[in-house]
Amino acid sequence: MRVGVLALQGAFREHILLFEALGVEVEAVRLRDHLAELDGLVVPGGESTAIGKLMDTYGFYEPIRERCADGMAVWGTCAGAVLLAKKVVGGVADQRTLELMDVTVRRNAFGRQVDSFEADLDVEGLGGPFRGVFIRAPWIEEVGEGVDVLAEHDGHVVAARQGSHMITAFHPELTGDTRVHRLFLDQVVGAPDAAGMQG
Ligand code: GLN
Hints:
Structural class: alpha/beta
Strand order of the largest sheet: 2-1-3-4-12-11-10
CATH architecture: 3-Layer(aba) Sandwich
Distance between the termini: 21 Å
Helix content: 10-25%
Number of strands: 12
Strand content: 25-35%
Radius of gyration: 15 Å
Number of domains: 1
Shape: globular
Bound molecules: glutamine
């Protein structure tokens, strides 16, 4: 199994270190050629407008979608969640995204006063609370059919999955807890029916 972390802007190093700690082969993806051999890709947190612009400049949009059509799994954290959504609200007009998941994501949704916070989350499949680190986080405002909600906070969806794609509004790479990374590897990348499944 080989995973990549899109390394254009944002918190990509933290994901790479965590995958390394889990003993997984992991690559910093800076050019679209790096996508070729990947079973899974993480689009990290950071600034979704900046990451999106760099994805455009380096020609990542179509190649990522093509690799997904052949079964590559993708996980977006925070800004990465914005970039996987079919629809984005609360941000710049006409923000381009990968449109891999049938969800509407609201940018910076938790508002100024609670810009950044931590909360214990009950994440589906983890068997115990997970400390969610939220930094100017989005929430998932609407989910389409076929999208599974994995976690909620204060009545808002903060983690979801559709086939071989997953999004979390929080940052599991900033905690020492590897359970969400394992969940991605074991249940999303490693799902027996991952190939051919598309969001
Ligand atoms: N607010 C950022 C955005 O919408 C996301 C913040 C983050 O990734 N921590 O792009």
